[in-house]
Amino acid sequence: MFKKATKLLSTMVIVAGTVVGNFSPTLALAEGVVKAGDTEGMTNTVKVKDDSLADCKRILEGQAAFPVQAGETEPVDLVVVEDASGSFSDNFPHVRQAIDEVVQGLSDQDRVMLASYRGGKQFIFPDGKVKINSADYDMNVRVDTQLTHDKSQFVSGFGDVRTYGGTPTASGLKLALDMYNQTHGDLTNRKTYFLLVTDGVANTRLDGYLHKTNTNDSINEYPDPRHPFQVSVEYSNDYQGAAAEVLALNQEITNQGYEMINAYWESVESLSSVNSYFDKYKTEVGPFVKQELQQGSSTPEDFITSQSIDDFTTQLKQIVKDRLAQSTPATASLTIADQFDIQSATATDDAGNDVPVQINGQTISATSTEGYVGNITIHYEVKENTAIDAATLVSSGTMNQGTIAKEFPEATIPKNDNAHACDVTPEDPTITKDIENQEHLDLTNREDSFDWHVKTAFGNETSTWQQASLVDNVNQLLDIQKVVVTDENGKDVTANGTVTQANNKVTFEMNKQADSYDYLSGHTYTMTITTTIKASATDEELAPYIEQGGIPNQADLNFGNEGDVLHSNKPTVTPPPVDPNITKDVEGQEHLDLTNRDQEFKWNVKTAFGNETSTWTQA
């Protein structure tokens, strides 16, 4: 078997207030070697869902289930950074109890570390002036419990933490990161989580000062005129600058490959009081701080927040439990045979929760979430894409979980008894042509119009065609009056293409629809060309065609690939016969009276030979 890929799991937890989030750790799977026939706990079945489709192809539904086993978890480093500012005093015991429960539930291979922060009494104003609030406390940032396997030492160190003063969140994060990096040693096969727990808005900055934005150089402010004696030292705090430092430390932690969880217990009543941020908290400060904390978390789900301390501690325990108590995820891959097209695929766990599924070509895969133990079922639908004339394999596949590898039983389906009920005999295209529904037309009057009908039946294989056009070279002695294209029902379909005329050459170039000529399959189009004999055509020009049996005309169908062409028959049309005649005049007149007896005069004998001289035996 292959060895599972090594991975470092260290967790650093920072507690500075309430941060709410849900971890979504990256799943890392190591391949295992499949033992032939190792199908224990694996199922794969398929059955016919619908066999009534018009194309005689059945839709099948299948279920493939695989077990996800509890396995050895990777060791974890959990670094907790705890907000020990004065605002957390009343609820600090609840948070400490929640984290103690989490830590005591860790395995012997896991390590823990605790850092806490509070205080800060130096204020700096925009003009650079510094003032000290003698009533406040010096900044105190420290490691309460060094990185250790001893969980009881962590609990003892947490019990010694005292709360007071301001909120130097960035400094707490920086100390925790620096000390962890100095002491963690070999992190192979270990993952690190940082957990920041806070209930307040960061104020004391990395330089040790609380930065104020008011320009009157006053530490104390009175934000509510209705309560002129209620003082706030936080109202004009540069909360955005302090939050930016926290975000930068969050990002430094994640950039080093560690996971970052931010938990923020939001005491809206306290933070909106006249002694704090008053009217700015709900509209400005609160939304901004929560946005920054969520952005600093490894994922949006790694940020938790609540206004209820009970709900907050519940979330806090759950998110750490979810992230740290994780078994190796399992990935299953199901390969669908080429005779079937995948229609859909989903997966669910034992509780009916959706499990992410991916479809790549003919492969369906699903991966369990970290920490899940139980069964996962892949539900899939496929459709036959060819005739299934015998029992046929539909799907097979494998499941890997760490070094565990198993095979799905092969799922087969009986033959499709109706597989050939929809078979279609290939029909080739044809083209014919007539004149006034005849093979030959003798015109009665030279001026009469007459219709040529070019009929083409497209057959049933037009879906593969790359071209489709009708072409008719009309004789130059004929005048084209109009061109119309209709289908087998007499419907005008000229708009399905483009008709062009050039030097008596008529072309109907058909359009593709949905990038295909499939819509022509099974249809018949008739191109009707209405013509007359040109008035300018002479008897001499027409005579040869009369001798040869009429004016012929032929049309072509260009289809399939370039060069594929069908020629129609050649119907003919004969102009009406013109009989010979002879006339005579004298000097252009029927009668002439001579003036002088010896006067000369001309007799003119005129004859028109008509258009049937080819059969004469004398002239």
TrEMBL record:
Keyword Signal: yes
CDD domains from the UniProt entry: vWFA (cd00198)
Signal peptide span: 1-30
Entries under SMART domains matching the protein: VWA (SM00327)
Alphabetical keyword list: Signal
InterPro entries reported for this sequence: Adh_isopep-form_adh_dom, Fim_isopep_form_D2_dom, VWF_A, vWFA_dom_sf
Short name of any one Pfam family annotated for the protein: AgI_II_C2
Domain VWFA residue range list: 77-324
Recorded superkingdom: Bacteria
Protein's recorded name: Fimbrial isopeptide formation D2 domain-containing protein
Organism: Enterococcus faecalis ATCC 6055
